[in-house]
Design goal:
The chain is of the alpha+beta class and 268 residues long. The chain is built from eleven helices and four strands; from the N terminus they run αααααααβαββαβαα. It has a four-stranded mixed sheet, covered by helices on one side. A hairpin with an 8-residue loop joins strand 2 and strand 3. Helix 1 crosses helix 3, helix 5 packs across helix 6 and helix 9 runs parallel beside helix 11. The chain is elongated and about 100 Å long. The N and C termini lie far apart (70 Å).
Length: 268
């Protein structure tokens, strides 16, 4: 049955009280079409209820098809909406309506996750507990976090969302449809470090220089990080936390940090 107009009962109540349709329109502030259609249906049917069966019966989104889709998703939830619609010979919009409106399901992208061994999980848990303890003594406010990033001149794009609107393929090509990729694009290594309230100027490493433990100690720690901390922290205690790059976790780098820095978080 079609949904009833919320003003229909008020219209018919006034009509039975012998109020003219024009006055009903003025009193309720409803369109004249609504008033006259309600009075016409009342005279024809003898009731203010709507006519049964006015809406077209569903031929695609039926209870049987809803149940079939529910059974499929229960057996295997990793499914393609397009393929399910094709297999059941219905449109994709109908399949989306069944999943979203009838079954209250939402389509999520499958994500990636790393599976850790028991030893790695235990080690990471211990490190997390130690880091949490440092926050209680506010050591995280004087911790310097360092990192290196290889930046290339190659354009970034997402093949799923990167679109070009054009009338022809040639026009799209000229407007940036094709993004060229190179096996070894021009790049530069950038080093930076920061704490809770300050950060170092960026250090750009030449492309031909490979960051090994010797270069990391001489070019980054000695010439960049240590002078910056001595100037900005002004003899206040601070702590260094590095990432897991090979040059940072090398035994020689760890020994140098332990000898020359006030405090640092070792790799182990």
């Amino acid at each position: 049955m079609a949904p009833l107009n919320p003003h229909r009962s008020s219209i018919l109540h006034l009509f039975k009280a012998r109020v003219a349709p024009v006055d009903i329109i003025k009193r309720l502030g409803v369109p004249s079409r609504t008033v006259y259609d309600s009075i016409y249906c009342f005279k024809k049917l003898g009731t203010f209820l709507g006519r049964c069966g006015r809406r077209r019966k569903a031929t695609v989104v039926t209870p049987d098809r809803i149940k079939a889709v529910k059974d499929r998703t229960r057996r295997n939830s990793v499914r393609s909406i397009r393929k399910m619609a094709k297999d059941m010979k219905i449109s994709r919009s109908s399949m989306e309506r069944i999943l979203k409106d009838k079954l209250k399901l939402t389509c999520y992208h499958v994500g990636k996750a790393v599976i850790f061994s028991k030893a790695t999980t235990k080690k990471r848990l211990e490190i997390s507990i130690k880091l949490l303890q440092r926050t209680r003594t506010e050591e995280h406010l004087v911790t310097v976090f360092s990192d290196e990033k290889l930046i290339t001149v190659q354009a970034e794009f997402n093949p799923r969302n990167h679109r070009v609107l054009a009338k022809t393929s040639d026009e799209a090509f000229g407007n940036g449809r094709t993004i060229h990729r190179a096996s070894h694009p021009a790049s530069v290594m950038v080093f930076g470090a920061e704490s809770a309230d300050r950060k170092t100027p960026l250090l750009f490493v030449d492309q031909e220089v490979k960051i090994n433990k010797e270069v990391y100690i001489s070019k980054i720690l000695k010439k960049k990080l240590l002078p910056w901390t001595q100037k900005d922290f002004n003899r206040r205690p601070w702590m260094l936390q590095e990432d897991g790059a090979p040059a940072n976790t090398a035994k020689l780098s760890q020994q140098w940090s332990e000898t020359h820095l006030p405090a640092f978080i070792p790799n182990d």
